[in-house]
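Entry 14. Two folds queued back to back today. First construct below, sequence then structure tokens.
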Amino acid sequence: MSTPASTSIPSELAGWWRITETEAWSGKYLDMLGPALISFTGYDDRLRMDGTEEPHRSPTQLPRQVAPMIDGDATSLARANAQQQKVISRFLATGRSDPKDIFNWPSDSYMGMEASAHDALLGALVQEVKRRAGNATLPPIPEPNEVIRMTRQRVEPMVRGLFLLAEQDAVLQLLEGTVVFLTPSNIEHVLLNEGFSHSAWDIANVYLGSVNAESLGGRSAGILGLSQETTCFVTAKYLEGRGKFDDFLVHEAAHVFHNHRREFVGLPHTRTKEWLLPTEFAKRETFAFSCEVYARIVELSRSAKERVILFEEYAEDPFNVDVMDVEEHVDILREAVAAKNGWKRILKRCGSATPKKTRCSVLPGHKMAQVD
């Protein structure tokens, strides 16, 4: 089935293209999780890096409202046909889906098949989450105004240190509205309104872990929350206390800086200065972990000497995660605690100096059926 094209896009350019070279990712692993594709349709651009389609939504676009698909709906696992059941079962077990899965939900358009498949997966996900969570109860969640106050308190030092004075209030206002606590009363709404099925699966696992329920895929997320675009989903366990150098909100807020465009919060922007902060793709986790630990060091210290003492304590047993170079992370913090503005030092070590380039090759016939 050919992808519909707008008259504003030349016919020789419209359709799906294969990404063959990019400076942002190693070419060796570009197709490790599935063909790296991008499409130009004139309606809703797509970037696929992991076997799942992801609409490129601006933060000003509201998520589409999805009608509940619970108990007896035709898209539930119980009433799906055999092939649909296979796709749904694989998704519930792994969180993954194949680009060709949408053809199991016939429609008169490609976008119709995509929407039906997406809705079916999320509907089944909600059913399974409710079944596993049962009648879960959680401790009281802060009122909205308290959540805003708490968020601002956590992220304000970081924002003050990283942004110009004229930009700080706009960034703080953005971050104040990013935190959403996952609860039994809102988990269905959160999952059904998530634009990316694999992200909804991740959010579901975080929620199941917070209510001590069996996880999807047999492996607990083991985290207090996660960020998706500019939203930080947090569980009630965040309120139970933090480790000495832990601060999930600061960590996830640091990721918002490379997920949000400057123009959407009214900040000056150019073609090469479009994101809130220019962090290097490969160092985004290093940046977030460094901001998290440095925020706690600043919060707990009253002098430059105390900052050094706290850093030395942390350096003896740093976060040991495989998403960053731990030695580099510790070295960045060593520079940060010795600097007048440690936040700027962290950004300098993790910043991106040049815009990235991507090369594509056309898929013959621009037909989805030809994508392996």
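Second construct, same run, same settings:
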Amino acid sequence: MLTRRDLIKAGFAIPILAYTVGSSRLIAQKKMSSARSCGFYVMQFGTFKLVALEDGLQMLPFDKLLTRTTPEHVRSRLKRDFLTSPVPVSTNAFLLDGGGRRVLIDTGAGSLLDSEVGLLPHGLNAAGYKPEDITDIVLTHLHVDHGGGLVRAGKIAFPNATLHVARKEADHWLDPAKRGAAKQNQQETFAEAPKILTPYRDAGRLRLAADGDTVIPGITLILRPGHTPGTLEIKVESNGHTILFLGDMLHSEQVQFAEPDIAFTFDEMKAQLSPIVAQCWPRRRRRNTGWRSPTSRFPV
């Protein structure tokens, strides 16, 4: 059975972040100078400086990875948007700088996957930040392409950061009994989760989040089980605008918006995820609320 590492080695990317960056109204806000360069892109979102950080660029074969459908149907849906499979996918993380805090949403793959990803540290440095500058990290979930960058050579990669992970997510991936009963394509996450969480826990920097917790004013964590048992949606509000960072709840907006029952290979709780995806379309159309799928090209 395919693992995430297998897909990367085959030239296929698993999205680092299904992200929301705003409708045209939000994107039209004033861009900051030198907005895009060297794997990062900067914009102003309300009181926050928002930095998109590219971890790598891969090709995602949706006709092979989307389930509860047929390859022919997927290719037909993609064609309507002038796309063919595999689809170019930017794997991204995001930094919110404001209120004296610098909150990183996901950390990229680090050294846990192929060399085509794991580039986030270069973009962070080019954007003018050091790992020591990060005060908080929020993981959408614990798959290695989202949390692999938390550690380097077994040590904390962001020494001053508090790590926020859903309690349900940590409890699931740290449970030996669940690992024993897990499918082969889940074993990688069960193996790596303790390695990336333990250093932060031992340093007193691990915070297990519940639904509705606030990281800082304007940044709220919403539990959305489906892709994994403890996936978090990060809701950011500022000056009357909203961005919803969705983790891997949605992989192909071209296909799944219209047909939310279509799932992704690594979705673990498909029945719970479909209603969440079905809610995305009306939320997307609300005034001053924006988001995008992981298949959007870097930066946003």
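Quick look at the second one. Residues 77 and 192 are 35 Å apart (CA to CA). The longest helix spans residues 187-202.
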